[in-house]
Specification:
The chain is mainly α. It contains ten helices and no strands.
Amino acid sequence: MYEMVRSSQSRPPAARRALKSSSGRAPALSSKPRRATGKRVQDPEGTQRDILEIALEEFALNGLSGARIDEIAARTRASKRMIYYYFGGKDGLYLRALENAYLTVREGEAALDVEHLPPIEALRRLVEFTFDHHHRHEAFIRMVMIENIHHGAYLDRSPAIRQQNASAIATISRVYQRGVESKVFRPGLEPVELHWQISALCFFNVSNRATFSKIFGRNFGAPKALAALKRNAVEMVERYVVRSAALPQD
């Protein structure tokens, strides 16, 4: 099983944002509650987004068993009763946070618009995006690790996650098929397995960064190290998929 890594405190601006990584070191998350300003405005959707944002941080940091509804309520403008009303309890809140974590990566992939790029460039963009996304969203990595600890039991309850991830396979399938038809990609590869290989190269960069850095006395989260690891990930995927005659020449 993957070792846990610490998550950073900074967050990207999206409504369902995850924890943003920096250089392998991460300070503890602030547990200060959000300050209410003026009269409370009825905004159920905004309230749920706030709850999910904080819940993602709490579950990613403490796991399903360690996260506390009291702490999530204290850090948002919601009451504990409201959390139970919207999500039915901690299990329901965890599942929705997991769904949102997957949704964020799938929305980012969709925004790449790789359909209009040549196949090799499209493949490269997918690998680069996956590497960068995982680096910026450590909470996503940690949520996937936690869900694997539970053997995917909660993911089994979510048709939404399966539908979201079907789009990832459809995208990589189209890119791969175009590459085979233009004779720049090797035939006979499985798109799901290709997705697996790309994910593995990019996931490990976050999940095992802390332990590798400690064991080998090298900061794998430093900007120079990350740039090299990203280049290597792209090159390894290209050499696996692209015909040798079509590989970029140095």
